Amino acid sequence: MKRAVVVGLVAAGAVVAAAGVVRYDVGRIDGVVLEARAAGDCAVVRAAAERYHLVHKVVGRSAVRRSEADVAACGRLDAAGVMLDRAVHGSERDASQGVGVLDQVLADPEQLAGVRVVVDRFVAALRVTEPCLAGRIAEEVRGRAERKELQERIGTAIAEVGPRATSACADELVKQADWKGARQLYQQVIERYPDDLRVAAAKAGAQRATEAIELADVRGLVDPDSGTYCDNPAKYSAAPPYRKGLNRTILLGDELDPYASRLPKAWRTSDPKAATIVVCVDVAQGKAVRTCPYQSKLGFGPVWVTFRKVVFNLKTYELRTGRLIRSGKVEVDGTSCPRRLYYQAATDFSNPEPNQFVTPTSAGLRAAFQPTIVRR
Question: Which domain of life is it from (predicted)?
C-alpha cells in the first residue's frame, strides 16, 4: 500500500513538472508572438504560432487563441498589402479596398504596428510610382480611412505624395496639350493642398491652361467658314485690353470681305493671339445716292438701278473679356453709276438687282472703321 502511494505521488509530481514545462514553453512562445506583433512582423508571428501543439492548447489556451487571432490578422494585412500593391501597378481602385481592410484589422488596436508596416510599404512604393497614377491613387484613398490612427497615417502620405505627383502629372499633360486635364489637376493641387509650396506654380499653370482652352475656343468661334463668335462672344483672357492707339482687330461678317481687304493690314488679323477686339459687321444698304439706266439684257428698254450708301452696323467686343464695348452704325458714300456694271446673277440673261451698293473709296472705309480700331 505504501509503495502504491509512493508511485502515485511520483506520477503526480511528474505530471505537475511536465505541465510546468509546457506552461513555460507557452509563455516563451507567447512572448515571441507578442514581440513580433508589436514590431508588425507577421513572418515571426506565424513561425512562432506554428510551434504550438495540442498540449500547448490544453495548458495555455488563452495564449494560443490570441496567437490564432494574430495570425488571422496577419492574413488580412497580407490581403490589404496585395490590394495596395495592385494599386501602385495600375489598378488604383484597389487602393480604397486595401484601406478598408486595414480599417477592419484596426478593430483590434494591438494590430496597429502591422498596419503601419503595410502602410509604410505602400507609401514607399507610391513615392516611385508614375506621377499620374500616384496622383489618382492619392485621390482614391483620400477620406477612405475611418479609424483615427489610419486617417493620420494615410493623410500624412497623401500630403507628401499627392501634391508632387499631381503637379508632375499636370505638367506632363501640358506637354501633350491636354489643357483641360492639366487645368483640372492644377486646380486639384490648389484646392486639396492649399499650404503646399507648389500652389503658386499650380495657380500659374491653371492660368496658362485656362488661356489655352479659351484660345482654342475663340479660334473655333472666329473661323470664317463655321464660326459663330458674333452669336456667342467669348473671352481670351491673355489678350491685351482695349486701349488708346491701334487695337488689332478680327473683322467678322457676311459680305464684308470686299471692304475689309481694303483696310490697312496693320489693323486686321485673323489670329486671336494677335487681336485686341472682334468687330462684328452687318452690311446693309443705306440712303439712295443716284439712279441710273442700264441696257437690259432682255432688250426691252433700260433697266434702272439705284445706288445706295453702304451701312456698316458695328458691334465691338473686347477679346480679353468678351464684353460688348461699342456698337453703332456708319454710313459710307462712294462712287456710283459706273459705265459697266458688274454683278452676280442666276443666268446670263438676268438683269441686275434694282438696288446696288456704291463703291466706297479706301479713304472712306478707313474713316468708317478708324474710330473703333484706332482709339483716341
Answer: Bacteria
pLDDT tens-digit series, residues 289-325: 999 998 887 777 789 999 999 999 999 999 999 999 9
| pLDDT at residue number 49 | 64
**Cα Rg of the chain (Å, integer):** 42
- Separation between Cα atoms, residue 374 and residue 316, nearest integer Å: 13
Coarse DSSP helix, strand, coil percentages of the chain, rounded to the nearest 5 percent: 55, 15, 30
Q: Is the CA virtual torsion 14, 19, 22, 28 positive or negative?
A: negative
252 neighbors 278 (Cβ within 8 angstroms): yes
Q: Which residue has the higher pLDDT, 214 or 341?
A: 214
pLDDT digits (tens, 9 = 90+) for 97-139: 999 999 998 888 888 888 899 999 999 999 999 999 999 999 9
- Cell digits of residue 140: 482614391
Ramachandran sector of residue 177 (left: φ over 0; alpha: ψ -120 to 50; beta: rest): left
Task: Report residue 292 as a C-alpha cell.
Answer: 441710273
Q: Kindly state the helix (H) or strand (E) to which residue 318 belongs, with its residue range.
A: strand 302-318
Amino acid of residue 252: L
Whole-prediction pTM = 0.78
Q: At what angle do helices 61-88 and 2-39 cross, to 10 degrees?
A: 20
**How do strand 249-252 and strand 277-295 relate by DSSP bridges?**
parallel
Counting other chains too, the contacts that 175-182 makes at CB distance below 8 Å and 24 or more residues apart are 177/212, 179/209, 179/212, 179/213, 179/216, 180/209, 180/213, 182/209
Where residue 360 falls among pLDDT bands split at 50, 70, 90?
A: very high
Contact 98, 122 (CB under 8 A): yes
Domain map of the chain by residue range?
2-161, 176-221, 245-375
pLDDT digits (tens, 9 = 90+) for 162-174: 999 999 999 999 9
Cα–Cα distances in angstroms (integers) from residue 10 to residues 3, 14, 294, in the given order = 11, 6, 146
Residue 327, SS3?
strand
CA 32, CA 372: separation in Å to the nearest integer? 88
Residue 354 sits at φ, ψ, to 5 deg, of -70, -15
Cα 201 versus chain centre, distance:
15
What are the residues facing 20 on neighbouring strands? none
